[in-house]
Specification:
Layout (H helix, E strand, L loop, with lengths): L14 E3 L2 E3 L6 E5 L6 E6 L3 H17 L7 H30 L3 H18 L9 E6 L2 E9 L2 E5 L5 H15 L2 E5 L6 H13 L6 E3 L4 H9 L5 E5 L2 H13 L3 E5 L4 E5 L9 H9 L9 E7 L3 H13 L19 H17 L2 E4 L16 E4 L6 H4 L6 E7 L2 H9 L3 E2 L2 E4 L3 H10 L6 E2 L13 E2 L2 E2 L4 H6 L2 E8 L1
Parallel strand pairs: 7-8, 7-10, 8-9, 10-11, 12-13, 12-18, 13-16, 15-16, 18-19
Antiparallel strand pairs: 1-2, 3-4, 5-6, 6-22, 11-21, 14-15, 17-20
Length: 484
Protein backbone atom coordinates (compact mmCIF):
# COMPACT_ATOMS: atom_id res chain seq x y z
CA UNK A 1 0.00 0.00 0.00
CA UNK A 2 1.40 3.41 -0.87
CA UNK A 3 0.23 6.99 -1.01
CA UNK A 4 1.24 10.15 -2.76
CA UNK A 5 -0.21 13.43 -1.56
CA UNK A 6 -1.52 15.63 -4.35
CA UNK A 7 -3.16 19.04 -4.14
CA UNK A 8 -5.95 19.68 -4.36
CA UNK A 9 -7.67 16.62 -2.97
CA UNK A 10 -11.08 15.55 -4.12
CA UNK A 11 -13.66 18.20 -3.25
CA UNK A 12 -17.35 17.58 -2.61
CA UNK A 13 -20.39 19.77 -3.20
CA UNK A 14 -23.04 17.46 -1.71
CA UNK A 15 -23.76 15.88 1.65
CA UNK A 16 -24.48 12.21 2.22
CA UNK A 17 -27.91 12.11 3.89
CA UNK A 18 -29.83 8.89 4.38
CA UNK A 19 -27.75 7.08 1.77
CA UNK A 20 -28.10 9.73 -0.94
CA UNK A 21 -25.90 12.60 -2.08
CA UNK A 22 -28.01 15.75 -1.72
CA UNK A 23 -27.52 19.49 -1.92
CA UNK A 24 -26.69 21.06 1.45
CA UNK A 25 -29.14 23.42 3.09
CA UNK A 26 -26.67 26.32 3.10
CA UNK A 27 -23.80 27.51 0.92
CA UNK A 28 -21.26 27.30 3.76
CA UNK A 29 -18.14 25.27 2.98
CA UNK A 30 -15.21 23.84 4.90
CA UNK A 31 -11.84 24.61 3.33
CA UNK A 32 -9.35 21.85 4.11
CA UNK A 33 -5.85 23.29 4.64
CA UNK A 34 -2.62 21.29 4.43
CA UNK A 35 -0.82 21.27 7.80
CA UNK A 36 2.49 20.76 6.00
CA UNK A 37 2.23 23.51 3.35
CA UNK A 38 -0.56 25.70 4.82
CA UNK A 39 -2.17 25.69 1.37
CA UNK A 40 -5.84 24.90 0.68
CA UNK A 41 -6.43 21.35 -0.51
CA UNK A 42 -10.16 20.82 -0.94
CA UNK A 43 -13.62 21.98 0.04
CA UNK A 44 -16.61 20.10 1.40
CA UNK A 45 -20.05 21.40 2.40
CA UNK A 46 -20.48 22.42 6.02
CA UNK A 47 -23.62 20.85 7.43
CA UNK A 48 -26.18 23.10 9.09
CA UNK A 49 -29.06 22.48 11.46
CA UNK A 50 -31.47 21.81 8.59
CA UNK A 51 -29.14 19.10 7.29
CA UNK A 52 -29.03 17.50 10.74
CA UNK A 53 -32.83 17.62 10.87
CA UNK A 54 -33.06 15.90 7.48
CA UNK A 55 -30.54 13.21 8.45
CA UNK A 56 -32.22 12.50 11.80
CA UNK A 57 -35.62 12.33 10.12
CA UNK A 58 -34.28 9.84 7.59
CA UNK A 59 -32.64 7.78 10.34
CA UNK A 60 -35.78 7.90 12.47
CA UNK A 61 -37.96 6.68 9.62
CA UNK A 62 -35.46 3.96 8.71
CA UNK A 63 -35.39 2.76 12.30
CA UNK A 64 -39.12 2.96 12.97
CA UNK A 65 -40.34 1.64 9.62
CA UNK A 66 -37.45 0.32 7.56
CA UNK A 67 -35.92 -3.12 7.17
CA UNK A 68 -32.54 -2.59 8.85
CA UNK A 69 -33.50 -3.15 12.52
CA UNK A 70 -35.75 -6.04 11.46
CA UNK A 71 -33.11 -7.95 9.54
CA UNK A 72 -31.42 -10.80 11.33
CA UNK A 73 -27.99 -10.06 12.81
CA UNK A 74 -26.48 -12.41 10.24
CA UNK A 75 -28.14 -10.51 7.38
CA UNK A 76 -26.76 -7.24 8.71
CA UNK A 77 -23.36 -8.89 9.07
CA UNK A 78 -23.34 -9.76 5.38
CA UNK A 79 -23.95 -6.10 4.49
CA UNK A 80 -21.20 -4.98 6.85
CA UNK A 81 -18.81 -7.40 5.20
CA UNK A 82 -19.58 -5.62 1.92
CA UNK A 83 -18.80 -2.29 3.62
CA UNK A 84 -15.40 -3.70 4.54
CA UNK A 85 -14.82 -4.76 0.94
CA UNK A 86 -15.74 -1.30 -0.33
CA UNK A 87 -13.52 0.38 2.27
CA UNK A 88 -10.69 -1.87 1.15
CA UNK A 89 -11.06 -0.68 -2.44
CA UNK A 90 -10.64 2.92 -1.29
CA UNK A 91 -7.85 2.53 1.25
CA UNK A 92 -5.09 3.94 -0.98
CA UNK A 93 -7.17 7.04 -1.66
CA UNK A 94 -8.09 7.34 2.03
CA UNK A 95 -4.44 7.02 3.04
CA UNK A 96 -3.45 9.82 0.69
CA UNK A 97 -6.32 12.04 1.86
CA UNK A 98 -5.58 11.53 5.55
CA UNK A 99 -1.87 12.21 5.08
CA UNK A 100 -2.67 15.40 3.17
CA UNK A 101 -5.42 16.85 5.34
CA UNK A 102 -4.11 15.89 8.80
CA UNK A 103 -0.38 15.50 8.16
CA UNK A 104 -0.05 11.86 9.20
CA UNK A 105 3.04 10.17 7.74
CA UNK A 106 2.20 7.52 5.17
CA UNK A 107 3.02 4.62 7.51
CA UNK A 108 0.77 6.07 10.23
CA UNK A 109 -2.04 6.64 7.77
CA UNK A 110 -1.75 3.10 6.47
CA UNK A 111 -1.89 1.73 10.02
CA UNK A 112 -5.02 3.74 10.84
CA UNK A 113 -6.79 2.46 7.76
CA UNK A 114 -5.72 -1.11 8.44
CA UNK A 115 -7.41 -0.62 11.83
CA UNK A 116 -10.56 0.37 9.95
CA UNK A 117 -10.43 -2.75 7.78
CA UNK A 118 -9.92 -4.90 10.88
CA UNK A 119 -12.93 -3.27 12.53
CA UNK A 120 -15.27 -3.92 9.61
CA UNK A 121 -14.08 -7.51 9.44
CA UNK A 122 -14.76 -7.90 13.16
CA UNK A 123 -18.22 -6.29 13.24
CA UNK A 124 -19.40 -8.37 10.30
CA UNK A 125 -19.00 -11.49 12.48
CA UNK A 126 -20.23 -10.16 15.83
CA UNK A 127 -23.52 -12.01 15.39
CA UNK A 128 -21.59 -15.28 15.64
CA UNK A 129 -20.32 -14.39 19.12
CA UNK A 130 -23.06 -12.35 20.73
CA UNK A 131 -26.30 -13.71 22.27
CA UNK A 132 -28.98 -11.38 20.92
CA UNK A 133 -31.55 -13.64 22.62
CA UNK A 134 -31.29 -16.19 25.42
CA UNK A 135 -33.64 -18.18 27.60
CA UNK A 136 -33.73 -17.55 31.36
CA UNK A 137 -35.46 -19.34 34.18
CA UNK A 138 -35.88 -18.56 37.86
CA UNK A 139 -37.64 -20.00 40.88
CA UNK A 140 -41.19 -19.12 39.89
CA UNK A 141 -41.01 -18.50 36.17
CA UNK A 142 -39.11 -18.34 32.94
CA UNK A 143 -38.62 -15.96 30.05
CA UNK A 144 -36.41 -14.69 27.30
CA UNK A 145 -33.85 -11.90 27.37
CA UNK A 146 -33.96 -9.97 24.10
CA UNK A 147 -31.36 -7.40 23.15
CA UNK A 148 -32.70 -4.79 20.75
CA UNK A 149 -31.05 -1.82 18.99
CA UNK A 150 -31.09 1.40 20.98
CA UNK A 151 -32.43 3.45 18.05
CA UNK A 152 -31.01 6.45 16.19
CA UNK A 153 -27.36 7.06 17.04
CA UNK A 154 -25.51 10.34 16.65
CA UNK A 155 -21.77 9.82 16.34
CA UNK A 156 -19.22 12.62 16.67
CA UNK A 157 -15.58 11.94 15.85
CA UNK A 158 -12.31 13.92 15.99
CA UNK A 159 -9.79 14.64 13.27
CA UNK A 160 -6.85 12.52 14.43
CA UNK A 161 -8.07 9.24 12.89
CA UNK A 162 -11.36 9.88 11.11
CA UNK A 163 -12.00 6.67 9.16
CA UNK A 164 -10.73 4.41 11.93
CA UNK A 165 -12.70 6.18 14.65
CA UNK A 166 -15.83 6.34 12.51
CA UNK A 167 -15.59 2.62 11.78
CA UNK A 168 -15.14 1.83 15.47
CA UNK A 169 -18.42 3.60 16.19
CA UNK A 170 -20.73 3.09 13.25
CA UNK A 171 -19.73 -0.54 12.67
CA UNK A 172 -21.13 -1.93 15.94
CA UNK A 173 -24.03 0.52 15.86
CA UNK A 174 -25.07 -0.85 12.47
CA UNK A 175 -24.42 -4.42 13.59
CA UNK A 176 -26.84 -3.83 16.46
CA UNK A 177 -29.54 -2.64 14.03
CA UNK A 178 -29.28 1.07 14.79
CA UNK A 179 -29.42 3.86 12.24
CA UNK A 180 -26.65 6.45 12.34
CA UNK A 181 -25.88 10.12 11.77
CA UNK A 182 -22.10 10.63 11.65
CA UNK A 183 -20.53 14.07 12.17
CA UNK A 184 -16.81 14.18 11.36
CA UNK A 185 -14.59 17.09 12.40
CA UNK A 186 -14.02 19.93 9.94
CA UNK A 187 -10.21 19.44 9.93
CA UNK A 188 -10.29 16.00 8.27
CA UNK A 189 -13.49 15.46 6.31
CA UNK A 190 -12.24 14.22 2.94
CA UNK A 191 -11.25 10.72 4.04
CA UNK A 192 -14.64 10.36 5.77
CA UNK A 193 -16.47 11.41 2.63
CA UNK A 194 -14.62 8.57 0.91
CA UNK A 195 -15.99 6.31 3.67
CA UNK A 196 -19.46 7.60 2.76
CA UNK A 197 -18.83 6.48 -0.82
CA UNK A 198 -17.97 3.01 0.49
CA UNK A 199 -21.15 2.91 2.58
CA UNK A 200 -23.20 3.92 -0.45
CA UNK A 201 -21.60 1.24 -2.61
CA UNK A 202 -22.29 -1.43 0.03
CA UNK A 203 -26.02 -0.88 -0.43
CA UNK A 204 -27.38 -0.12 3.02
CA UNK A 205 -31.12 0.56 3.03
CA UNK A 206 -32.34 4.12 2.60
CA UNK A 207 -32.04 6.34 5.67
CA UNK A 208 -29.66 4.08 7.62
CA UNK A 209 -26.53 6.24 7.44
CA UNK A 210 -25.67 9.92 6.96
CA UNK A 211 -22.30 11.72 6.97
CA UNK A 212 -22.38 15.43 7.81
CA UNK A 213 -19.08 17.31 8.34
CA UNK A 214 -19.38 20.30 10.61
CA UNK A 215 -18.07 22.21 13.58
CA UNK A 216 -18.85 22.31 17.27
CA UNK A 217 -22.18 24.12 16.95
CA UNK A 218 -23.71 21.56 14.59
CA UNK A 219 -22.35 18.80 16.81
CA UNK A 220 -24.13 20.27 19.81
CA UNK A 221 -27.32 20.53 17.79
CA UNK A 222 -27.05 16.81 17.01
CA UNK A 223 -26.45 15.97 20.67
CA UNK A 224 -29.56 17.88 21.74
CA UNK A 225 -31.77 16.59 18.93
CA UNK A 226 -34.90 14.90 20.34
CA UNK A 227 -34.90 12.37 17.49
CA UNK A 228 -31.53 10.94 18.56
CA UNK A 229 -31.59 8.11 21.13
CA UNK A 230 -27.86 7.78 21.79
CA UNK A 231 -24.67 9.79 21.32
CA UNK A 232 -21.29 8.15 20.78
CA UNK A 233 -18.44 10.65 21.07
CA UNK A 234 -14.67 10.58 20.78
CA UNK A 235 -12.74 13.73 21.65
CA UNK A 236 -11.50 15.88 24.49
CA UNK A 237 -12.59 15.40 28.08
CA UNK A 238 -13.82 19.01 28.19
CA UNK A 239 -16.13 18.39 25.22
CA UNK A 240 -17.17 15.07 26.75
CA UNK A 241 -18.33 16.83 29.91
CA UNK A 242 -20.49 19.15 27.84
CA UNK A 243 -21.99 16.27 25.84
CA UNK A 244 -22.67 14.22 28.97
CA UNK A 245 -24.42 17.22 30.51
CA UNK A 246 -26.63 17.72 27.46
CA UNK A 247 -27.47 14.01 27.25
CA UNK A 248 -28.33 14.02 30.94
CA UNK A 249 -30.99 16.68 30.40
CA UNK A 250 -33.07 14.23 28.35
CA UNK A 251 -31.64 10.90 29.64
CA UNK A 252 -30.16 10.10 26.24
CA UNK A 253 -27.77 7.17 26.16
CA UNK A 254 -24.13 8.15 25.77
CA UNK A 255 -20.70 6.60 25.39
CA UNK A 256 -17.57 8.73 25.64
CA UNK A 257 -14.01 7.95 24.58
CA UNK A 258 -12.01 10.89 25.90
CA UNK A 259 -8.50 11.99 26.76
CA UNK A 260 -5.53 10.24 28.25
CA UNK A 261 -2.24 10.82 30.04
CA UNK A 262 -1.03 7.26 30.01
CA UNK A 263 2.02 6.00 31.85
CA UNK A 264 4.68 3.52 30.79
CA UNK A 265 6.37 1.93 33.82
CA UNK A 266 9.91 0.59 33.35
CA UNK A 267 10.95 -1.94 35.99
CA UNK A 268 14.51 -2.25 37.21
CA UNK A 269 15.16 -5.67 35.66
CA UNK A 270 14.70 -5.04 31.94
CA UNK A 271 17.38 -3.93 29.45
CA UNK A 272 16.44 -0.72 27.66
CA UNK A 273 17.07 -2.25 24.24
CA UNK A 274 13.98 -4.35 24.92
CA UNK A 275 11.96 -1.26 25.84
CA UNK A 276 12.82 1.34 23.23
CA UNK A 277 11.44 -0.34 20.07
CA UNK A 278 7.85 0.17 21.23
CA UNK A 279 8.26 2.96 23.77
CA UNK A 280 9.75 5.53 21.37
CA UNK A 281 6.80 5.49 19.02
CA UNK A 282 4.20 5.01 21.79
CA UNK A 283 4.50 8.60 22.89
CA UNK A 284 5.18 10.60 19.74
CA UNK A 285 3.68 8.57 16.91
CA UNK A 286 1.29 10.67 14.80
CA UNK A 287 3.02 13.67 16.43
CA UNK A 288 1.58 12.60 19.78
CA UNK A 289 -1.98 13.18 18.54
CA UNK A 290 -3.26 9.87 19.90
CA UNK A 291 -5.48 9.62 22.97
CA UNK A 292 -3.76 6.44 24.16
CA UNK A 293 -0.19 7.76 23.75
CA UNK A 294 2.32 6.90 26.47
CA UNK A 295 3.31 10.43 27.41
CA UNK A 296 4.54 9.77 30.96
CA UNK A 297 7.58 7.47 31.17
CA UNK A 298 8.17 6.24 34.72
CA UNK A 299 11.72 4.97 35.36
CA UNK A 300 13.70 3.98 38.46
CA UNK A 301 15.49 7.12 39.64
CA UNK A 302 18.94 5.61 39.30
CA UNK A 303 18.15 4.64 35.67
CA UNK A 304 16.82 8.02 34.53
CA UNK A 305 20.07 9.13 32.91
CA UNK A 306 20.53 5.70 31.31
CA UNK A 307 17.06 6.06 29.78
CA UNK A 308 17.74 9.62 28.59
CA UNK A 309 21.05 8.57 27.04
CA UNK A 310 19.12 6.02 24.95
CA UNK A 311 15.91 7.97 24.40
CA UNK A 312 17.33 11.29 23.23
CA UNK A 313 19.35 10.00 20.26
CA UNK A 314 16.42 7.76 19.28
CA UNK A 315 14.13 10.79 19.06
CA UNK A 316 16.72 12.99 17.39
CA UNK A 317 17.21 10.37 14.68
CA UNK A 318 13.55 10.47 13.64
CA UNK A 319 12.91 12.34 10.41
CA UNK A 320 10.46 15.22 10.83
CA UNK A 321 8.95 16.56 7.63
CA UNK A 322 6.69 16.03 4.63
CA UNK A 323 4.12 13.36 5.52
CA UNK A 324 4.14 12.14 1.91
CA UNK A 325 7.85 11.25 2.13
CA UNK A 326 8.06 7.55 3.02
CA UNK A 327 11.11 8.28 5.22
CA UNK A 328 9.19 10.74 7.40
CA UNK A 329 8.33 9.48 10.87
CA UNK A 330 6.97 12.69 12.42
CA UNK A 331 4.65 14.93 10.43
CA UNK A 332 3.15 18.29 11.36
CA UNK A 333 0.47 18.89 13.93
CA UNK A 334 -2.99 18.96 12.42
CA UNK A 335 -3.76 22.64 12.93
CA UNK A 336 -2.02 25.89 13.74
CA UNK A 337 -3.98 26.21 16.99
CA UNK A 338 -2.74 22.74 17.97
CA UNK A 339 0.88 23.78 17.43
CA UNK A 340 0.23 26.90 19.52
CA UNK A 341 -1.21 24.72 22.27
CA UNK A 342 1.78 22.37 22.28
CA UNK A 343 4.30 25.21 22.27
CA UNK A 344 2.46 26.80 25.20
CA UNK A 345 2.73 23.58 27.19
CA UNK A 346 6.46 23.42 26.46
CA UNK A 347 6.80 26.93 27.92
CA UNK A 348 4.73 25.86 30.94
CA UNK A 349 6.96 22.84 31.52
CA UNK A 350 10.09 25.01 31.50
CA UNK A 351 8.47 27.50 33.89
CA UNK A 352 7.50 24.63 36.21
CA UNK A 353 11.15 23.59 36.46
CA UNK A 354 11.23 20.53 34.21
CA UNK A 355 14.35 20.10 32.08
CA UNK A 356 14.20 19.93 28.27
CA UNK A 357 16.73 17.32 27.16
CA UNK A 358 15.82 17.36 23.47
CA UNK A 359 13.48 19.31 21.24
CA UNK A 360 11.42 22.14 22.61
CA UNK A 361 11.09 24.15 19.41
CA UNK A 362 10.36 24.04 15.71
CA UNK A 363 12.51 21.93 13.39
CA UNK A 364 15.13 23.76 11.35
CA UNK A 365 14.43 24.11 7.65
CA UNK A 366 10.66 23.69 7.97
CA UNK A 367 9.52 27.28 7.68
CA UNK A 368 6.04 26.34 6.50
CA UNK A 369 3.74 23.91 8.19
CA UNK A 370 2.76 23.36 11.82
CA UNK A 371 5.75 21.37 13.02
CA UNK A 372 7.10 20.83 16.53
CA UNK A 373 10.21 18.86 17.41
CA UNK A 374 9.80 15.69 19.47
CA UNK A 375 10.39 17.03 22.98
CA UNK A 376 11.51 15.20 26.11
CA UNK A 377 11.31 16.66 29.61
CA UNK A 378 13.35 15.10 32.43
CA UNK A 379 13.07 15.54 36.20
CA UNK A 380 9.32 15.91 35.89
CA UNK A 381 7.17 15.85 39.01
CA UNK A 382 3.78 14.28 38.59
CA UNK A 383 2.05 17.37 40.01
CA UNK A 384 3.30 19.53 37.13
CA UNK A 385 0.74 20.55 34.52
CA UNK A 386 2.75 18.88 31.76
CA UNK A 387 2.37 15.60 33.66
CA UNK A 388 -1.31 16.03 34.48
CA UNK A 389 -2.86 17.60 31.38
CA UNK A 390 -3.26 16.08 27.94
CA UNK A 391 -0.99 17.99 25.54
CA UNK A 392 -1.81 16.05 22.35
CA UNK A 393 1.57 16.68 20.83
CA UNK A 394 5.04 15.08 20.66
CA UNK A 395 5.95 15.89 24.27
CA UNK A 396 7.20 13.24 26.70
CA UNK A 397 7.57 13.53 30.48
CA UNK A 398 10.20 11.33 32.16
CA UNK A 399 9.30 10.87 35.82
CA UNK A 400 11.70 9.09 38.22
CA UNK A 401 10.46 6.79 41.01
CA UNK A 402 12.05 5.02 43.96
CA UNK A 403 9.85 1.91 44.26
CA UNK A 404 7.25 -0.01 42.30
CA UNK A 405 4.61 1.06 44.80
CA UNK A 406 5.51 4.68 44.09
CA UNK A 407 5.42 4.05 40.33
CA UNK A 408 1.91 2.61 40.55
CA UNK A 409 0.81 5.53 42.70
CA UNK A 410 2.22 8.00 40.15
CA UNK A 411 0.54 6.18 37.27
CA UNK A 412 -2.80 6.29 39.11
CA UNK A 413 -2.40 9.91 40.23
CA UNK A 414 -4.19 11.21 37.15
CA UNK A 415 -7.66 12.30 36.13
CA UNK A 416 -7.29 9.90 33.21
CA UNK A 417 -7.11 6.13 32.79
CA UNK A 418 -7.11 5.15 29.13
CA UNK A 419 -3.97 3.19 28.28
CA UNK A 420 -0.57 2.26 29.65
CA UNK A 421 2.38 -0.09 29.49
CA UNK A 422 4.62 -2.06 31.83
CA UNK A 423 8.13 -3.19 30.89
CA UNK A 424 9.71 -5.92 33.01
CA UNK A 425 11.72 -9.07 32.34
CA UNK A 426 9.79 -10.75 35.13
CA UNK A 427 6.42 -11.13 33.38
CA UNK A 428 4.71 -12.14 36.62
CA UNK A 429 5.83 -8.83 38.13
CA UNK A 430 4.69 -7.01 35.00
CA UNK A 431 1.21 -8.50 35.27
CA UNK A 432 1.00 -7.66 38.96
CA UNK A 433 1.81 -4.03 38.14
CA UNK A 434 -0.60 -3.98 35.19
CA UNK A 435 -3.45 -5.19 37.39
CA UNK A 436 -2.82 -2.35 39.85
CA UNK A 437 -2.90 0.46 37.30
CA UNK A 438 -6.36 1.98 36.93
CA UNK A 439 -6.67 2.08 33.18
CA UNK A 440 -8.85 0.61 30.46
CA UNK A 441 -6.12 -1.04 28.38
CA UNK A 442 -2.52 -1.80 29.29
CA UNK A 443 0.28 -3.61 27.47
CA UNK A 444 3.11 -5.74 28.83
CA UNK A 445 6.52 -5.27 27.19
CA UNK A 446 4.90 -3.58 24.20
CA UNK A 447 2.40 -0.90 23.35
CA UNK A 448 -0.49 -0.71 20.96
CA UNK A 449 -4.18 0.08 20.58
CA UNK A 450 -6.14 -3.13 20.20
CA UNK A 451 -9.38 -1.83 18.75
CA UNK A 452 -11.08 -5.17 18.02
CA UNK A 453 -11.13 -5.85 21.75
CA UNK A 454 -12.78 -3.66 24.43
CA UNK A 455 -11.24 -0.20 24.31
CA UNK A 456 -12.11 2.68 26.61
CA UNK A 457 -11.13 4.36 29.81
CA UNK A 458 -11.47 4.72 33.54
CA UNK A 459 -12.18 8.03 35.27
CA UNK A 460 -12.23 11.07 32.97
CA UNK A 461 -11.05 9.01 30.01
CA UNK A 462 -14.66 8.13 29.28
CA UNK A 463 -17.71 5.95 29.72
CA UNK A 464 -18.32 2.58 28.11
CA UNK A 465 -16.24 0.44 25.79
CA UNK A 466 -15.79 0.15 22.05
CA UNK A 467 -14.72 -2.91 20.07
CA UNK A 468 -15.87 -6.54 20.00
CA UNK A 469 -18.99 -7.69 21.86
CA UNK A 470 -18.49 -5.07 24.57
CA UNK A 471 -18.71 -2.36 21.92
CA UNK A 472 -21.80 -3.95 20.41
CA UNK A 473 -23.50 -4.01 23.83
CA UNK A 474 -23.29 -0.21 23.98
CA UNK A 475 -25.81 0.04 21.12
CA UNK A 476 -28.38 -2.40 22.53
CA UNK A 477 -31.21 -2.22 25.05
CA UNK A 478 -32.09 -5.28 27.12
CA UNK A 479 -35.69 -6.46 27.37
CA UNK A 480 -37.06 -9.31 29.51
CA UNK A 481 -40.07 -11.13 28.11
CA UNK A 482 -41.74 -13.13 30.93
CA UNK A 483 -43.99 -16.13 30.42
CA UNK A 484 -46.77 -17.30 32.70
Amino acid sequence: MSASVVAPLKSYDKLFIGGRWVNPATDRVITVVSPSTEEPLATVPEAGEADIDAAVAAARKAFDEGPWPRMTPAERGAVLARVGEEVGKRVPEMVAAFSAEIGAPVAVSEAFHQFALNMWGDVSTLHERYPFEEERSWADGHGRVVREPVGVVGTIIPWNGPVGTASLKIGPALAAGCTVVLKPAPEGPVSVMLLAEALEAAGLPEGVISVLPGGREVGEYLVKHPGVDKIAFTGSTAAGRRIMSLCGERIARVTLELGGKSAGIIADDIPLDQVLPSLVFAGIGHSGQVCAAITRILVPRHRQQELLDALVPAYEALKVGDPADPDTVIGPLAAERQRDRVENYIRIGIEEGARVVTGGGRPEGLDRGWYVQPTVFADVRNDMRIAQEEIFGPVICVIPFDSIDEAVAIANDSDYGLSGAVYASDTALAEQIARRVRTGQISINSWGMCVVQPFGGYKQSGLGREGNVEGLSAYLETKLIQYA
